[in-house]
């Protein structure tokens, strides 16, 4: 329901062999919003995602998704709880076609058990057909329908990123975490991505995005969380964050103050 | 007491040779990230080449020893240049591993052709009478062994630690890209590593040859032992390799001498498994472990697998089924029917392996071990205890599943190279059990008097009846596996192979899928093993040993992994062609090795994959020529 908290992080800490990557990070993401996490390089944005989705455990602190504590759950269980993420380097599955990639996204929603699939019972057939229809609809939305039988890794980077997003959407996540979805995209591709993300939000999915591309972020985000050196230094709507002196200092350095 | 010392000395001597082989592994692994599984073959090459130089060309010892080492270095270098170098850009590490398997088989086959299958006894360097020191007898050859090992290791250490060349070599090991940017000729380093590794192995064989018997396939034993030493010492650690070799030799000889050689082998292999699982950095905790990628294997990305879909697949399947059904009528119970029955049996086993390797991307180098577990269980129950063959087969499958479950859980945290090597250790362990537990399994001579498979009173005694039994089972399996492959289960497997982390992020419970596939493939192998035993009325360790494991991999890769038709093609070719070329039987191993190497280099998608891709390219070219701007059909 609107107004509830999709994702909440409390006091997360993580260090890698002496390097403190994330220090006392707390934030909350409103359901139905598009929240962006930004910050200079090395701020700890991807580490944050990895902690929340339990790619590795935090040294301290916890995170919860729609009120369910995520601590200790392996990544596949986190996904089953409704939190799906994408990765910084486009990770389309090599060796599989575009359509097959999207179909994999529906894994969590496949009701048929393995033995039923082995016998290709009617229920299995019907389910396969339904999933296929959904996948093809999504491919239409991003304009990849005519490349459905091509090898997924033969797509240009921009298309692979779109593919990753709709693959994640097939899982019908409640919360979608996108790690630098615009990295490596040109202006045209970025605009397409922005359109897709807004459409996803309109469909009721909560989005959290880690991004470097400022114009994209300022254009579509409802809330922004700014990280620097592993700490949250500002939160708020784009307009407020843009003029926040601490944020400006983090990006441009101390000289900006005297300029 | 004296006996203990003599056994210990024997251990140190054997250990020295293991150390030499292990150092060779270290050299190649440092520069390439994959151990050269064919390393042991150079031991045999060295010993037998020296023998030939001395006996047939009448070279004096002083010339024959370096001469044989030089020949080995040449072969090693040629291998690197002709095979390894072109492969490195094209194959992921898993493919390189399989390529190495091919090289091992190739060298074995070449040795068989050149020197035949008999064991050779090589004259000792300085006479046969042992030296006697403090009432302890030491073969004089022993001093040569220790001396050669010490000299080689010292020389190598000097080169690596004290020369610029050595520094460059170590730079390659750390970071080949950065090294080449600094002007280090990385490819020349790899060449040196291979050639030097080969020479080291050869020297080991030359000095050890006189006090043991060497034959064409002894290379396998040295590869295993040298590899175990290499792993025990921490992969990539130079001194660890030496220490590991000596330690291993001691442990082996002492346990073999005082307990039994079966126990010795079991202990050694259990030790290897333990190290791979819990201390991949070696017993001494060396720093030889490379950073693990989150993908299954590093290197070139997996190429897309061509598969048939839809109507084309169905037509082909029905056609195939039709041919299989009527074929025996034309063959009328001749030997060919029997060969085809064997084809069917191995097809069942390789189907399981395909599910594991082709679909899920887990390289398994010891798969015939499950054939052995299933086959021997069924055979022993049916022969010794008179259990009905069907029940006996069931028991064999059940035991195989239990073993597979243990193995899968124990290796759960391993990925890629480590998992592959753990499966090799498993296969070797099963080999030594089937050979060693003579009372139970009949030992090396095998188990005789196994009855025919029977169902409710009807005995499948003739070749034709076995043919139908086997192919009936195979057909049912193909249908089931085809269904699994094209549904969510199959996609989950392939996603796991492609990218485990991304797969988990979508909710795929990767560990569970890996275990389930492992179990299914083990069950199929066990079934194949049982049918094998019931068909031949005989079962020996060789039939279901590591050679068979490697052969199954060859069949799979030749036909095309990740498909269902591929295994059929591969198995058919490698069971029927040798039967047709019976007089050239000596060349069989050589041909198999050559086939595997060539396939990995030039047609990694196998025959089926290659033909399909070619047809798809042809089809898309035709479609693009027509006025309709249609998509390329997927066949």
TrEMBL record, chain B:
Subcellular location as annotated: Cell membrane
Keywords assigned: Cell membrane, Membrane, Transmembrane, Transmembrane helix
Pfam family, one: BPD_transp_2
Single GO MF descriptor: branched-chain amino acid transmembrane transporter activity
InterPro entries recorded: ABC_transp_permease (IPR001851), LivM-like (IPR043428)
TM segment ranges: 7-31, 61-84, 96-117, 138-160, 191-214, 226-251, 257-278, 312-331, 337-356, 388-410, 417-437, 468-485, 515-534, 555-581, 593-615
Membrane topology note: Multi-pass membrane protein
An example Gene Ontology CC term for this record: plasma membrane
UniProt main location, coarse: membrane
Protein name: ABC transporter permease
Annotated organism of origin: Candidatus Segetimicrobium genomatis
């Amino acid at each position: 329901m609107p107004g509830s908290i999709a994702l909440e992080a409390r006091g997360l800490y993580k260090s890698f062999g002496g390097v403190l990557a994330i220090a006392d990070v707390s934030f909350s993401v409103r359901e139905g919003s598009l929240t962006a996490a930004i910050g200079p390089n090395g701020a700890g944005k991807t580490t944050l995602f990895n902690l929340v989705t339990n790619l590795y455990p935090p040294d301290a602190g916890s995170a919860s998704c729609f009120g369910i504590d995520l601590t200790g759950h392996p990544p596949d269980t986190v996904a089953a709880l409704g939190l799906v993420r994408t990765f910084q380097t486009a990770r389309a599955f090599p060796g599989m076609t575009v359509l097959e990639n999207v179909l994999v996204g529906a894994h969590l929603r496949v009701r048929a058990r393995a033995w039923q699939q082995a016998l290709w019972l009617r229920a299995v057939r019907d389910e396969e057909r339904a999933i296929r229809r959904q996948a093809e609809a999504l491919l239409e939305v991003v304009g990849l329908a005519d490349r459905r039988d091509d090898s997924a890794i033969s797509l240009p980077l921009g298309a692979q990123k779109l593919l990753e997003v709709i693959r994640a959407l097939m899982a019908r996540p409640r919360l979608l975490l996108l790690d630098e979805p615009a990295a490596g995209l040109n202006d045209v591709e970025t605009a397409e991505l922005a359109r897709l993300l807004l459409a996803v939000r309109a469909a009721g999915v909560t989005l959290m995005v880690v991004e470097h591309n400022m114009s994209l972020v300022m254009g579509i985000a409802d809330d922004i969380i700014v990280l620097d050196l592993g700490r949250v230094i500002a939160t708020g709507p784009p307009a407020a964050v843009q003029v926040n002196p601490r944020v400006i200092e983090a990006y441009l350095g101390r000289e900006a103050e005297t300029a | 007491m004296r006996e203990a010392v003599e056994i210990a000395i024997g251990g140190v001597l054997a250990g020295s040779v293991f150390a030499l082989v292990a150092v060779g592994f270290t050299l190649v692994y440092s520069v390439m990230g994959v151990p050269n599984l064919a390393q042991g073959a150079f031991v045999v090459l060295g010993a037998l080449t020296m023998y030939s130089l001395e006996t047939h060309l009448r070279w004096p010892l002083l010339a024959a020893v370096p001469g044989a080492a030089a020949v080995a270095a040449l072969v090693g270098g040629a291998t690197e240049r002709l095979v390894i170098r072109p492969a490195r850009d094209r194959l992921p590490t898993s493919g390189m591993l399989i390529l190495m398997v091919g090289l091992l088989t190739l060298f074995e086959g070449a040795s068989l052709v050149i020197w035949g299958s008999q064991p050779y006894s090589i004259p000792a360097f300085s006479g046969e009478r042992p030296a006697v020191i403090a009432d302890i007898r030491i073969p004089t050859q022993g001093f040569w062994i220790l001396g050669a090992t010490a000299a080689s290791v010292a020389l190598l250490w000097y080169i690596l630690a004290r020369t610029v060349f050595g520094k460059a070599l170590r730079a390659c090991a750390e970071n080949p890209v950065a090294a080449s940017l600094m002007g280090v000729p990385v490819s020349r380093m790899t060449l040196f590593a291979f050639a030097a590794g080969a020479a080291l192995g050869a020297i080991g064989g030359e000095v050890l040859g006189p006090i043991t018997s060497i034959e064409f396939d002894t290379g396998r034993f040295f590869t295993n032992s040298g590899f175990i030493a290499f792993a025990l010492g921490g992969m990539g650690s130079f001194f660890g390799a030496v220490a590991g070799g000596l330690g291993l030799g001691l442990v082996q000889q002492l346990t073999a001498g005082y307990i039994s050689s079966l126990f010795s082998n079991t202990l050694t292999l259990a030790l290897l498994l333990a190290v791979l699982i819990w201390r991949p950095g070696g017993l001494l905790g060396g720093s030889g472990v490379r950073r693990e990628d989150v993908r299954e294997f590093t290197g070139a990305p997996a190429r897309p697998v061509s598969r048939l879909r839809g109507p084309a697949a169905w037509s082909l399947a029905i056609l195939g089924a039709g041919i299989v059904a009527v074929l025996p009528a034309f063959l009328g119970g001749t030997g060919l029917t029997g060969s085809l029955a064997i084809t069917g049996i191995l097809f069942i086993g390789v189907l399981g392996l395909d599910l594991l390797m082709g679909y899920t991307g887990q390289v398994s180098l010891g798969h015939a071990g499950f054939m052995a577990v299933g086959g021997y269980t069924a055979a022993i129950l049916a022969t010794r205890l008179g259990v009905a063959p069907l029940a006996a087969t069931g028991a064999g499958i059940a035991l195989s599943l239990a073993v597979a479950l243990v193995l899968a859980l124990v290796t759960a945290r391993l990925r890629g190279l480590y998992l592959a090597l753990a499966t090799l250790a498993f296969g070797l362990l099963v080999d030594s059990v089937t050979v060693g537990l003579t009372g139970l399994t009949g030992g090396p001579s095998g188990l005789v008097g196994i009855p025919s498979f029977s169902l409710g009173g009807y005995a499948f005694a003739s070749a034709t009846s076995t043919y139908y039994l086997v192919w009936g089972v195979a057909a049912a399996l193909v249908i089931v596996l085809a269904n699994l492959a094209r549904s969510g289960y199959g996609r989950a497997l392939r996603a796991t192979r492609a990218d485990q982390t991304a797969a988990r992020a979508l909710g795929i419970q990767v560990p569970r899928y890996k275990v389930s596939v492992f179990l299914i493939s083990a069950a199929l192998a066990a079934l194949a093993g049982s049918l094998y035993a019931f068909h031949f009325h005989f079962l020996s360790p060789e039939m279901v040993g590591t050679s068979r494991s490697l052969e199954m991999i060859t069949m799979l890769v030749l036909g095309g992994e990740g498909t269902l038709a591929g295994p059929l093609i591969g198995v058919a070719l490698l069971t029927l062609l040798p039967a047709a070329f019976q007089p050239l039987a000596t060349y069989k191993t050589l041909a198999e090795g050559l086939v595997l190497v060539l396939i990995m280099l030039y047609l990694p998608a196998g025959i089926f994959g290659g033909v399909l891709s070619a047809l798809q390219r042809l089809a898309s070219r035709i479609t693009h020529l027509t006025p309709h701007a249609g998509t390329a059909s997927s066949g």
